[in-house]
User: Fold these one by one.
Assistant:
Number 1:
Amino acid sequence: MSIDYAAFRRELEAFARQACPPEIRAVVAAGQKITKREYQAWQQILNDRGWGAPSWPVEVGGTGWDIRQRLIFEEVMAENDCPPLYHHGLGHIGPVIIRFGTPEQKARFLPRILDGSDWWCQGYSEPGSGSDLASLQTSARRDGEHWVVNGQKIWTSHAHEASMIYMLVRTSKEAKKQEGISLLLVPMDTPGITVRPIRTIDGWHHLNEVFFDEVRVRADNLIGEEGKGWTCAKFLLERERLPPANVARLALMHRQVSALLQKAAQAAGARRDFGVLQHKLLLCEAELQGARVMMAQATDDLIHQRPLGVQPSAIKMTCADVAQRLTTIALDAVGPEAAHRFLAEEGGEELPAATWIQNYMFTRARTIAGGTSEVQRNVIANALLGA
């Protein structure tokens, strides 16, 4: 049966306007930090509607939507200032459990991701293992019906508010480094876990370092085969940059262009460089339109099961670069009189100017997080030049 995508879009638009609470939309529209409070409330609303997991199969509680429907969903929600789906549970570990988990593991973990009961973080990077993730040293040794974990993870987003962490651990030092890694699911309230905040220049608390000291974890919390966690990790990372994960980001940046044009126009009477700001914004908008074309091509490739090639890397790199440029333009638009102000405190009243400053500082990491732009350039160069 053919799908009426225009009618589907209208249904989503009506739902977004009616169902998303105004106080949540206000946080998103203002560019403020979206916290667990907003994410969780919106996830519960979506789950009650049956839309809690747009990318999951119907048999595990998903919508069963095709790729085009998922893209339309992400775009419409972003256009209406609804929070993006919280990716760690729905987009990362959920699909891994669906693909590699046992029936018992699916029954235990998936419903709690759907309704927002469990809040997940990712334990991958370590102080000496970032780009070379396979060199990780956090260990897990088998002790009867438990794994005992020791080590440290770093740059762990949302660990301070998460109830669960999915983490790569070394279960064998004899095998070559990729083959000695396993994927383990660990409750964050387990004795022996310590979370310490990493303070970043944007003033928002989102990063942490996490320490594991003789942490005992149920043996059946291991996903997939022992020593085959690298397979699970590659499965996750390959899907992290698929088009549906980037659509909301593109739609949000289009919203930012509109907001910045208004900001620059309001300042036109007092500033002589309005034309310069407008020119910069138009260049950003042109690049976003180019990214949309790449997105449309990648979507068509997904639908027809053609290889995506370097498209996810190119889209990710473009989005990161434009995000940084947009927030730089925003800082110029609010003017130097705002730039010296203290940052708004997390959870407090945020001045629009202060929010732009925080977003400027936050986006400095966009060319690092999720795969550095340098790595993406290498991926693209290797594919195009055959290196």
Number 2:
Amino acid sequence: MAKQAKTDRQAVIESIRTRQKSEERRRGLMIVGVCATVALLIVLAAAYRPLKNWWDLRQFRDVAIDKIGAPASVCEKPTTKKASGNQQHVPDGQAIFYDDAPPAFGEHYGTPDPMTRKLYTKGDRPDLGVLVHNLEHGYTVVWYDETVAADSSQMSELRGLADKFAGTSNYRFKFKAVPWLESDGKAFPKGEHIAFTHWSIGGADQDPSGDKQVGVWQYCSEISGDALNTFMIDYPYMDSPEPNGM
């Protein structure tokens, strides 16, 4: 009997060990499965934005600039203001305060943003002092507020417009689209969420060092490729204090 009892105990122990190993394998497989799922979700999340951007660009690839977004009627007429700050550089990082929302001229940092990148978002936009230097070089800067930033449809249109100006060899493509943040200063005029700006010398045939320099603004309630197209024809890169600068 004693031998039989010992054999039964061993059988029970082996059974318990077998169940434990089986449960450990199941837990291991569950952990692997969860990790694989999390890894897949991370990959999908990382891939979503590039895929979304690719799709946005695809839908506008064969659409003319003036056909993207709303008609020009959503924009006010351009306004101007006597400009100052030509070649007035301040040390990088020094605080600069601009009276206008957004600025179209003024003192600025010593190096402009490269022509390569056309569209920025809240997390990676250059400093205002850098962008004002771009304005001095003849760029058209399109500023969008947080209302537009939160609107996926308008951001898709803005992305489609920015893609029209891809490249660095054609100076007619001196274009930047950047966010205007609450921390930057005053809000845009009531009901307006887009602003085009340009630093003009009063016409491309004027003396760049003359006294006819003005800042130009055009405010819109939403994205309008129609208005932007006209604005960039009326105020080309040559109509700026330093048109040959990148």
Number 3:
Amino acid sequence: MSESEIVFRSDVTVELVKASASDADVIWAARVSTAGEQSMEEIGEDPARSEGLINYLARERHGSPFEHTSMTFFISAPIFVFREFMRHRIASYNEESGRYRELKPVFYVPSTDRKLIQVGKTGSYTFVDGTTEQYETSVKAMKDAYVVAYEQYQKMLDVGIAREVARVVLPVGLYSSMYVSMNSRALMNFLSLRTAREGSHFPSYPQREIEMVAEKMEAEFAKLMPLTHKAFEKSGRIAP
């Protein structure tokens, strides 16, 4: 297989495929402790009170009302992003399987604005731009390795080797896809750790590629639950 037959990407795909998540869901769940059952119409009668309640819940870390929501995302990203993602045991995952389908030759290469050089120690470091030569060396090394790996994968498949065996030669820069479902409390926990933001109470140092996924998820979350997202930011991006 030649390099021209392989797809190289520098982006990620995040699509909200379904959701049952609104600020009203949080308020409805929280008020049952003091007001019993309420209709959604009753909940929407006093917007200022609703915003105040959500701010209170986020600030005081009363988190369970935020769990009465659900969002399902379709994500396409390099495998190394998924391996970091699945460290968060606060979601349900279903990923495509290299045991059952032939994996497509789609591989990750960094964009020109991806910072390449780590400065400082683990837990307290920053990344800075590399030189043009360093960038070109990185991209060439990745592409060369991808071509060889996928050629060997195809060679094994062509002689009848099982997919689950042949896939072992493929690198973590290969793109995979998955559905992930989580509630808003779990999503805020994920965002607190996988985005770097000024004003965060606990600074985070995410790898850029998983932060790209997190940023797209956060944009959908902010549209679905604007009051909750605002309270999350106001509380220093700490999950309640």
